[in-house]
Structures are given as C-alpha cells and as structure tokens.
Amino acid sequence: xxxxxxxxxxxxxxxxxxxxxxxxxxxxxxxxxxxxxxxxxxxxxxxxxxxxxxxxxxxxxxxxxxxxxxxxxxxxxxxxxxxxxxxxxxxxxxxxxxxxxxxxxxxxxxxxxxxxxxxxxxxxxxxxxxxxxxxxxxxxxxxxxxxxxxxxxx
Length: 154
Ligand SMILES: [Zn+2]
Description:
Elements: H1 42-85, H2 90-112, H3 131-150
Helix pairs in contact: 1-2, 1-3, 2-3
The structure holds zinc ion.
Residues 18, 20-21, 23, 33, 35-36, 38 line the site of zinc ion.
C-alpha cells in the first residue's frame, strides 16, 4: 500500500535510505530492508531524505558564515587596538570590538551543531561542516574578549 514511493516514483534529491541501518534502498521493491530486515516505511524514508537534504543545505550556508568569521574578528581587533592606540574613544572601541567578537564566536558555534554528511550521501553531496575553522573562529572571538577586558588603558 505504500509502494507508491518505490522505484521510479522516488524523486527526492537524495536516495532512499533505510532509516535503521542506512542501506541504500534504491530500486528495492519490497517493504522490508534487505540488509537488516526492518519494515520499510516509505513515508519515513522520504521524510528522512528531505530532512538530511535540508540540513546539508543549511550546513552550506553556515560554512559561508564560518568563512566570514575571521574578517569579523579582524574588524573587532581593529576596533579595539585602533582606538587604544590613538587614545580616543578607547571604551566604545572595546565595546564594538566585543560585539564583533561575539559575532565571530556565533559564526563558529552554529556549525558545531550541524551534522556530518552521512556516509551514504557522500558521493552526492560534497558538504562537510568546517569544524576546525569554526573552532578557530571561537578561539579568535574569545581572545578578542580577553584583549578588550584586560588591555590596560593608556
Ligand atoms: Zn536496514
């Protein structure tokens, strides 16, 4: 009765995957997974494919954000150090610097919540969350906050 999704009727952007064991169900015409024997609920399989596809798209956007992070951090460092050096508006400079530092941290934190591309989708989608860059962004942000707080006034 749920055979409507099987075979050629499947038109999601990712292949149908057993929600239990991850077996690729493309071309399978039974309601049981050949790999683990679980009942295949095609509605769940479809929902899962859409969910994963959506989260991969999201990861792509967040990766872009991660790339922007260091520039935001750089602008923050500039605000803190420039006003400190010219001995004018030192306080406001630090406040803006800390705000930019928070944005830098956020740009990294977002990506830490995203999932890696599942094994079965690797061939189709080439989007891996930039975890290392994300951690670097967080470190930059934290360092800026420390700088803004502990830099002695001139
Ligand atoms: Zn299975």
